[in-house]
Backbone:
């Protein structure tokens, strides 16, 4: 993996597809073509797991750490795969913002036709193989989905105790009752992963490597926690006892209360990290490299009593630390990880990253505070194994940052550093070029920065529920001139 290259961060839902949200159809393949034309070597996406309105359609709060988001299944690809006829495709929708509700409604109708077609097909060899290979998570996920629907969408701790507590007789009865519905859930997962792997193979043929994103925590109301309650801090009623967050300090004195149930790492360790290693192996089958979100949480994490309203009542608890990565190194064929290491990082964390050659992330906009000369984010202090970002999915695009967030002093330092006065129009290309010329082997640029867009193109505002994850690019923005500019920088700075 140690070659000099650059790439673009753009989630699949942000593609200009035709049916409510970006998907794995023609627009995704055209984006790969754009990357190849621009001489980019990476496409980074956000998590591809199922999303739900209750979680604001966030890809970081999902009902499964293993399942795929069926809203990303391409109707056009279904026609090519023989599950739909061209005349059965719905009317096209505007491709301005993601509309997850409409995307779901459209696909729900199409999936009924797919199920009918699938039932008539007698050759289910590949589907049966998929179900066998993925049984370690697929069976529980399918049952979780149909049960949740049958109980009116209630969170699983509020289900009848015999189902909530997974009593074998009750589960066997439910599987018998909902066999057909479970089969349909599995069919959709089969179709999703088929489409994803086809896209991955296309990208590989174009010499594009895919970077995925793995959240540390999982949602409480998920198949993962329901199926593995012993791995989490839960009470007898299966409600969380301790939840995730971050301590107060700096810009946020109250801290952050994220609310995910915390892992019982001692139990996970005693099981040989079986669930976690299965999760890593599953994701490494989908991507070439994997960003590990909140990397510090493997070493210590902020534990908040579930009854507390804020993060102030929390305390530090130890994670598995270096032992986890030593054992992962023995289990996994490779560990092509990227550590999200922003914030306060302990010496043990840094030493583990060094030992296992796990690069950290360096957003350029972090460099221009006081102490620029010594800043680890400053271009002149970067190292080869850093992964440099002009921005992240949680941040304002460069133009928006420069226009509405950067202080006068930050702008002054940036202008002085580059030796010229920037404007809102020139800040994005200037920082992209600056990232490209650094010694860092890997540079990742959000598509919004490539296109020079402002705050209205922001993907996510942490701490808010509305208006996130909906930005989409337009087809006419991915033009040859933009690709040529990126290709020129890639060639000039040896990133081809």
Residues:
């Amino acid at each position: 993996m140690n070659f000099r290259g650059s790439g673009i961060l753009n989630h699949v839902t942000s593609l200009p597809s035709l049916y409510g949200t970006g998907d794995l159809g023609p627009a995704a393949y055209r984006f790969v073509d754009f990357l190849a034309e621009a001489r980019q070597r990476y496409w980074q996406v956000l998590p591809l797991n199922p999303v739900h309105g209750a979680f604001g359609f966030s890809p970081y709060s999902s009902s499964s750490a293993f399942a795929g988001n069926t809203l990303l299944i391409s109707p056009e690809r279904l026609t090519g795969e023989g599950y739909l006829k061209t005349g059965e495709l719905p009317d096209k929708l505007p491709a301005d913002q993601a509309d997850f509700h409409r995307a779901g409604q459209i696909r729900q109708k199409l999936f009924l036709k797919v199920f009918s077609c699938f039932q008539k097909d007698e050759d289910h060899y590949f589907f049966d193989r998929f179900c066998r290979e993925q049984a370690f998570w697929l069976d529980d996920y399918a049952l979780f989905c149909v049960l949740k629907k049958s109980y009116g969408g209630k969170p699983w701790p509020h289900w009848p105790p015999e189902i909530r507590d997974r009593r074998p007789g009750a589960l066997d009865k439910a599987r018998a009752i909902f066999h057909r519905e479970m089969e349909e859930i599995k069919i959709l997962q089969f179709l999703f992963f088929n489409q994803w792997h086809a896209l991955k193979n296309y990208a590989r043929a174009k010499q594009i490597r895919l970077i995925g994103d793995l959240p540390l925590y999982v949602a409480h109301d998920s198949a993962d926690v329901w199926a593995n309650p012993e791995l989490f801090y839960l009470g007898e009623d299966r409600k969380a006892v301790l939840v995730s967050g971050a301590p107060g300090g700096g810009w946020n004195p109250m801290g952050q209360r994220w609310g995910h149930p915390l892992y019982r790492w001692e139990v996970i360790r005693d099981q040989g990290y079986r669930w976690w290693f299965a999760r890593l192996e599953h994701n490494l089958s989908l991507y070439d490299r994997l960003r590990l979100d909140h990397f510090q949480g493997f070493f210590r994490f902020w534990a908040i009593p579930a009854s507390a309203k804020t993060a102030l009542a929390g305390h530090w608890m130890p994670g598995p630390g270096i032992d986890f990565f030593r054992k992962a190194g023995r289990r996994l064929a490779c560990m092509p990880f990227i550590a999200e290491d922003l914030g306060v990082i302990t010496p043990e964390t840094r030493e583990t990253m060094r030992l296992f050659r796990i690069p950290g992330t360096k957003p350029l906009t972090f460099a221009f505070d006081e102490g620029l000369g010594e800043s680890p984010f400053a271009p002149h202090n970067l190292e080869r194994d850093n992964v440099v970002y002009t921005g992240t999915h949680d941040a304002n695009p460069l133009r928006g940052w420069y226009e509405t967030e950067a202080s006068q002093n930050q702008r002054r330092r940036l202008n002085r550093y580059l030796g010229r006065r920037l404007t809102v129009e020139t800040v994005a290309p200037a920082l992209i070029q600056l990232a490209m010329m650094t010694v860092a082997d890997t540079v990742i640029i959000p598509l919004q920065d490539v296109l020079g867009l402002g705050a209205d193109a922001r993907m996510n505002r942490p701490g808010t529920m509305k208006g996130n994850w909906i930005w989409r690019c337009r087809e006419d923005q991915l033009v040859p001139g933009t690709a040529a500019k990126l290709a020129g920088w890639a060639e000039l700075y040896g990133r081809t």
User: Anything to note?
Assistant: The chain has a mean pLDDT of 96. The CA atoms of residues 52 and 181 lie 19 Å apart. Residues 5-67+199-492 form a domain with the TIM Barrel fold (CATH 3.20.20.80). The first helix runs from residue 26 to 37.
